[in-house]
Amino acid sequence: MKSLEDILPEIVEIRRELHRNPEISFKEFSTTNLIEETLDSWGLKFTRFKNLQTGGYCEIGEGEVIAFRSDIDALPITEDSSHEICSEISGVMHACGHDFHTSIGLGLLKYFSENKNELQNKLRVIFQPAEEAAPGGAELLVKENILENVKSIFAIHVDPTLEVGKFNIVEGPVQASSTSIQIEFNGPGGHTSKPSETVDLINVAAFYVTQIQSFIQQKIDSRETIAFAFGTISGGSTHNIIPQNILLRGTLRTHNNNVLNKCLTLMKTFTNSFADLHKIKIDLQFPTNCPATINNSELTKKFIDFMKSEGNSEKLILDSKPSMGADDFAFYGLYVPSLYLQVGAKGSGTLHSKDLVLNENLIQPSLKTTIGFIKNL
Ligand SMILES: [Zn+2]
Ligand SMILES: [Zn+2]
């Protein structure tokens, strides 16, 4: 038997090692090796995924499965070199705190391997590659049957705006969906002196941009959140040729997966009618589509009750709004009850920036709380 305090120094050291050696999505080779070697040294079995080159999972205990998702990838960002614990890989940085998520996943396994009698269920820690990619790792792991026998799954995400030791929990939607949209307009093209003899594709595309946004807005309940915007528009080569091709790219975000599906159907309907009206071809694609992350109400209540029972009500933030960011953790929640918690990590900088420095002291309260919660599930 070992206490949390006994194992903490090793977990902190692992976090530092991970931070110095970040790897981008689907390339987490040395990270995966580090996880495997660490588990090996603790006498625990690491299982790799069949069809992925990185990531894997580890299980302890018997019975129904409580799963914990640790994402393991970093971002293509060059870290500010003044940071005390700093990336040693040029152009890559753990700028979303997944080094913490990975070390906390390992910490849970270490703790429960030393205290097996405290575990009522089987614990499966999933070391998921490529959370930052789209499409990301979660969707692929679902196909690898990672949710087999899972009765609930949860994950934490560091929050640099929240004091260390605090936990933010949102009931219902916690992260937005994110769908990328690609629309290609194809027309006959022609001379700008005779737009009436062809289709003035730039005019038509401009009309499409404004019309589709208001069409969607009019058809969706105004109490629902939608962020629908275009990021690029390209086409044409010079001032006196009407182009044959225009490409638009954008994203749609919602907090409700039914609304998401309705929006996608509306876009198809609108686009087909619009193409008919203007006698052009429009190819509408959704290259990536990540659903919204919805916290299960029963698990949310269990977490709140757990915090209260531990006398930690004041550490719980309950009134925050859901984020417009997305996390592919959402895919697990489509199949099993899921819970996504944000943990206080206040240091400096923001997520996905070179300035981010998270407070290492978050490891202790995060592990203490997740260990306690797993015992209560
Ligand atoms: Zn991120
Ligand atoms: Zn992240």
Overall description:
This protein is of the alpha+beta class and 377 residues long. The chain folds into two domains: 4-174 and 294-376, Aminopeptidase, CATH 3.40.630; 178-289, 2-Layer Sandwich (Alpha-Beta Plaits). Helices cover 33% and strands 24% of the residues. It contains nine helices and 17 strands. It has helices at 4-20, 29-41, 98-114, 137-143, 201-219, 257-278, 297-309, 330-333, 363-376, and strands at 47-48, 56-60, 65-71, 122-128, 150-159, 167-168, 172-175, 178-186, 190-191, 226-235, 241-242, 245-254, 281-285, 289-290, 293-295, 316-317, 338-344. The strands form four sheets. Strands 1-2-4-3-5-17-6-16 form an eight-stranded mixed sheet, sandwiched between helices. Strands 8, 10, 12, 13 and 14 form a five-stranded antiparallel sheet that branches. It has a two-stranded antiparallel sheet with strand order 7-15. Helix 1 (4-20) crosses helix 9 and helix 5 (201-219) runs antiparallel to helix 6. The longest helix is centred in the C-terminal third of the chain and has 22 residues, at 257-278. It starts with a helix and ends with a helix. The relative contact order is 0.18. The site of one zinc ion (ZN) has 4 residues, from loops.
